[in-house]
Specification:
This protein is of the alpha+beta class and 169 residues long. 49% of the residues lie in helices and 15% in strands. Helix 2 packs antiparallel against helix 3. The C terminus is likely disordered.
């Protein structure tokens, strides 16, 4: 893997350059590299772990939760409609419009709530049709001014160029 330097805007809106030390398919592996940097005396406030999955984040999580609620409401409405029709067949003296609309609304509400509960109960996980290795990717990056310090902290005291740092794979 080729070394990568990225330029990002930090929380205080200053521009900082970061050098990617490695990419990992498991978060504990990325955290292990950060721990090795810490044990080597590297100032870990100058490093970060990035989640490289493009669809993760607060906005997409809320969109997925809304989608789950809508799907649940739709399925609940169908089940409510079915229950209302069965109720009309069993008790023919009821006002059919009230029963059908009531069952439809109650089913939609219950289905929407159930869809949200199931979505959150599975921790919002779903198979996006991607290979498992691509589903979870994390990168460890350090500020470019600290590349030499990172190389020393990782235990190799020989002079290394940035592209010779461990990739984590």
């Amino acid at each position: 893997m080729a070394a990568m330097t990225t330029q990002v805007r930090t929380a205080d809106h200053s521009v900082g350059d970061f050098y990617r030390l490695g990419e990992f398919t498991a978060y504990p592996d990325a955290a292990n590299l950060l721990h090795r940097l810490y044990e080597g005396g590297f100032p870990v406030l100058r490093a970060r772990i990035l989640d490289l999955h493009p669809s993760r984040g607060e906005r997409s999580d809320w969109l997925l939760a809304g989608r789950a609620a809508l799907i649940g409401a739709g399925l609940g409405a169908w089940l409510g409609l079915l229950a209302g029709l069965v109720l009309l067949l069993v008790l023919p003296g009821l006002a059919w419009l009230d029963v059908v609309l009531g069952a439809l609304l109650i089913g939609a509400a219950a289905g929407g709530v159930l869809g949200l509960i199931i979505h959150e109960g599975t921790d919002a996980r779903r198979d996006r049709g991607e290979p498992a290795a691509d589903r979870y990717r994390y990168a460890v990056e350090v500020e470019t001014a600290y590349i030499a310090d990172a190389a020393r902290a990782l235990g190799d005291r020989a002079a290394r160029t940035p592209t010779q740092l461990p990739t984590g794979r």
